Amino acid sequence: MTNEVPRFPFRSLRDWIVFLEQNDQLRRNKKEVNLRYDLGYISKVTADTGGPALIHENIYGYPDWKIFCDGLTTFQRKAWALGLPLETLAASLAGVIQSGNLIKPVLVDTGPCKEVKIFGDNIDLTNIPIPYTGKYDNPPYITAGISTIMDLDTGWHNIAIRRFQLKGKQRLCDLIVSYQHEGKIFAKYVRAGKPMPIAIVIGADPLFYLLSQMPAEDNVSEWDYWGAFTGEPLQVVKCETNELLVPAQAEIVIEGFVDPLKREFEGPFSEFPGYYSGCYYLPVVDVRAVTMRKDAIYYYLYMGKEPSEGHSMAHLMYSAQILKQLKQLVPEVRDVNVLSTWSFTTAVTVDRRAKREGLIKKLAMAAKAIQAGALIKNLLVFDDNVDIRSLSDIIWSFSVKFQPARDFLAIPNTIGAELDPSEPSLGHGPGVSSFGVFDCTEAGPPYDEPFRREVALPPKSDKALEVLRDLGLNG
Ligand SMILES: Cc1cc2nc3c(=O)[nH]c(=O)nc-3n(C[C@H](O)[C@H](O)[C@H](O)COP(=O)(O)O)c2cc1C
Ligand SMILES: [Mn+2]
C-alpha cells in the first residue's frame, strides 16, 4: 500500500510532492541558488508563465536543506489540491464552502513534525534557509508561515499566513492587522494583558495552505473545512510549549508567544499590492520551541506584484467565501470573482430577473460588512449572464452598460487595507480608504425596443457548427 501513488486527499507536503512529480508538474532544480533574491525571481517568472512547482536542492550555505515553492500557482494544481474538477472549479468550490459539512480536526499522539525538537537557547532560526524576496527585505521574511492562534475566550483556532520578519535567533516580528482575525484575537490578549500563544506552521499539505487563504467568518476555524473537502478530519498534535494544535504532518513548527506590549521596528516588505510596504512597529514573537521533521523541507512563497502563488491561493478562496457570506445577506447574488489584489477589485453578478431599485446599494453595503469583504475597494456588479471569469466579457459589459454619472457610487473614509499604496496613511497605522461601486448591470425598465436589449450574436446553425468542427474550432 505504501508504494501507491498518492492521490486526493493529500495528507502532507510529501504526498503532494510525489503526486506533482508523477503528473509532470514538479521540477527539481539541482543548480545552486542563493537565498538573496534567486528564489524570488525564479518564483515570480514561474507564476507569470504558469510554470511547474519547484524544489531547489542546492541552496548556498544550507547543504542539508531543500526548498519547495510554487505548488499552487495554476488552476489545475489548485483543483487537484481541492479534489475538484478543473472545468467547474469555481462552482464546485462554492458548493463545498456552502455545504456546511465542517469536521473538527482529530488530536493524535504524535506525528512527523515531532521528529526533531529544539528548545529555548538552543534555537537558532538563522539555521533555516529563509529566502529574501525584495531588495529592501532585510532581514528576510518567512512567507509561508501559517500563524495558528486561539481565541482567548473560546477554542476557536484561526489559521492564516502572516509575514514574519527574522529579528534574531529566537525572535520574529508579526504583521498583525486590525481587520484580520489575528488583529481581532490579539486585541483580546492585549486588553487582558496576556501573551498570545502562537504556532507558525511551515510546510503542510496543499489544502491546508489553500485554507490559510480563506477569510472565514468570526469563530470559524478554517481547518474545519479540511474535512468538508476530504470527508475526514485533519490530524493534529499538541504543541510542546503551549496548548495550540498543529498539523501532525507539518514540516516545521515554530512555537512562541506574542507579548501584548512589546513592539519592534519592521519592514519594508514586498507586499501583495505589488509595492514595498511602509515600516511599522510590530508585535514580536518570542520563540520557545522549534519542532520539525528530520529532513524538513522549507516552503517558500514569493510575495510581491501579482501574479504569485499567494495571490493565486487567495483569489480563489476569497471568491468562494465572499460569495458564501454575501449570499446570506443578499440572496440575489449569483457569483463572485476576485479580479485583483486580494479582492481590492472584485466582480459580482446578480440575478437579472430579481433586480430592483436599491438592490445594488444593499449589495454594496453588505459587501463591506462581511468579514471576507474587508479588502474590497472597487466592487463591479454585473448581470448573471456575464461570465466574470472572462476579462473580455467584463470589459465589454463595463463599456456598454455602465454610465459613469449614473452608475458609480463612491463612499469616502472607509476602513482601509493599511498596505494599499493609494491610501494617504501608508505605513502609519490603520489605513483609511474609500469604496467605489460600479453598477455594470443593464439599466432597468422602461425598456427600449427589444432589439436594442438583446446581446447581438449571430444565431447558431448546425451547418456552421459542422464547418467549425472541420476547422478544429469549438462553436
Ligand atoms: C505571503 C503572504 C503573507 C501574508 N502576510 C499577512 C500578514 O502579515 N498579515 C495579515 O493579516 N495577513 C497576511 N496575509 C494574508 C492572510 O493570510 C489572508 O488574508 C487570510 O485569509 C486572513 O485570514 P484571517 O481572516 O483568518 O485573518 C498574507 C498572505 C500571504 C500569502
Ligand atoms: Mn479566520
Structural description of this entry:
The protein contains 12 helices and 21 strands. The chain has 475 residues and is α+β, with helices and mostly antiparallel strands. The chain folds into 2 domains: 13-300, Roll (Pnp Oxidase, Chain A), CATH 2.30.110.10; 330-446, UbiD C-terminal domain-like (3-Layer(aba) Sandwich). Strands 5, 6, 7, 8, 9, 10, 11, 14 and 15 form a 9-stranded antiparallel β-sheet that branches. The protein is globular and about 80 Å long. The two termini are 45 Å apart. The mean pLDDT is 95.
Shape: globular
Main beta sheet, described? 9 strands, antiparallel
Instruction: Let me know the number of strands.
Output: 21
Helix percentage: 25-40%
Question: Could you name the CATH homologous superfamily of the largest domain?
Answer: Electron Transport, Fmn-binding Protein, Chain A
Separate helix tally: 12
Unreliable sequence segments: none
Q: What's the short story on this structure?
A:
By secondary structure, the chain is of the alpha+beta class. The chain is 26% helix and 26% strand.
Blueprint (SSEs and pairs):
Blueprint lengths: L12 H10 L3 E4 L8 H12 L3 E4 L9 E4 L5 H8 L6 H11 L6 E2 L8 E4 L21 E2 L2 E6 L6 E5 L2 E5 L2 E4 L6 H12 L3 E7 L3 H6 L12 H7 L4 E4 L6 E3 L4 E15 L13 E13 L4 E4 L8 H21 L3 E8 L4 E6 L8 H11 L8 E6 L7 H11 L2 H4 E8 L16 E8 L22 H9 L5
The structure holds flavin mononucleotide (FMN) and manganese (II) ion.
